[in-house]
TrEMBL record:
Modified residues annotated as 4-aspartylphosphate in this record: D51
Cellular component terms per the entry's GO annotation: cytosol; protein-DNA complex
SUPFAM superfamilies: CheY-like
UniProt cross-references to PANTHER family, sorted A to Z: REGULATOR OF RPOS, TWO-COMPONENT RESPONSE REGULATOR ORR33
Pfam families, sorted: Response_reg
Protein name: Response regulator receiver domain-containing protein
Gene Ontology terms for molecular function: phosphorelay response regulator activity; transcription cis-regulatory region binding
The organism of origin for this protein: Marinomonas communis
GO terms of biological process kind: regulation of DNA-templated transcription
Keywords noted in UniProt: DNA-binding, Phosphoprotein, Transcription, Transcription regulation, Two-component regulatory system
Classification of source organism: Bacteria, Pseudomonadati, Pseudomonadota, Gammaproteobacteria, Oceanospirillales
Length: 134
């Protein structure tokens, strides 16, 4: 599975990329919005992790352009902006999930897996109850 990480912070993008690669994902990194759009047009991705505050073109503009162009790649917005207005705007523009920084990688991972699963039609409505969890 291939993930595009659109994040201008080189330390964060390297960390997220490395952790997903350890889990068997193939990752590409875009350090600005223009590069993210180019990569999204060049090949299919199973998921886009998108920062909002990027140079050249912000994440909201990237998301809007992708959706207008018919690209329905599941997109998780990963940003420091936590205001409800920001979240509502991004969901209305086509974001599939939204996670604020700082975050735990474990949460990012399960959210990404859920988006990929749902997009592939593998999600179901059954909830398993673990007797050991309380």
């Amino acid at each position: 599975m291939r993930i595009l990480i659109a994040e201008d912070d080189p330390v964060l993008s390297k960390s997220v990329s490395s952790q997903f690669e350890k889990l068997g994902f193939v990752t590409d990194v875009a350090f600005d919005g223009v590069q993210a759009e180019i990569l999204m047009k060049e090949q299919p991705y199973d998921l886009l992790i998108l920062d909002l505050n990027m140079p050249k073109r912000d994440g909201n503009e990237v998301l809007c352009a992708l959706r207008r162009g018919g690209n329905n790649t599941p997109t998780l917005v990963l940003t420091a902006r936590g205001a409800l207005d920001d979240k509502l705007k991004l969901f209305n523009h086509g974001a599939d999930d939204y996670l604020t920084k700082p975050f735990r990688f474990e949460e990012l991972e399960v959210r990404c897996r859920a988006l990929i699963r749902r997009n592939r039609g593998l999600a179901n409505d059954q909830i398993e109850h673990n007797e050991g969890a309380r």
